């Protein structure tokens, strides 16, 4: 069963991809607008091919970005764990020093 966050991410991904498809179609129409001698069927075919190529490029970029995001997350989590251990160790050292200082001061 999906969590709410996963469902929201899926919806967001769907909406972003639909927007990417819309933009690819728009870029295709802008491209073919600069070629006025095309027939309607040639224009439609060229727009379709251009859109398919744009979407393939977008899919490749998105996969590359997703893979890099996963790598970065793993790296940041590893750094976080190290920093957490160091902070805990320093906290324990400071706590021990404080306890020793209190004991020394009270035993005087």
UniProtKB/TrEMBL annotation:
Say which domain of life the source belongs to. Bacteria
**Residue spans crossing the bilayer:** 89-107
Q: State the UniProt keywords alphabetically.
A: Membrane, Transmembrane, Transmembrane helix
* Protein name as annotated: Cytochrome C oxidase subunit I
> Lineage of this protein's species?
Bacteria, Bacillati, Actinomycetota, Actinomycetes, Kitasatosporales
């Amino acid at each position: 069963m999906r969590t709410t966050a996963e469902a929201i991410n899926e919806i967001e991904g769907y909406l972003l991809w639909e927007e990417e498809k819309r933009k690819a179609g728009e870029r295709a129409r802008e491209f073919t607008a600069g070629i006025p001698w095309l027939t309607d069927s040639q224009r439609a075919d060229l727009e379709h091919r251009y859109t398919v190529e744009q979407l393939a490029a977008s899919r490749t970029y998105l996969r590359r970005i997703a893979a890099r995001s996963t790598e970065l997350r793993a790296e940041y989590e590893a750094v976080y764990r190290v920093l957490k251990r160091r902070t805990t160790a320093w906290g324990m050292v400071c706590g021990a020093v404080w306890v020793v200082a209190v004991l020394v001061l009270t035993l005087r």
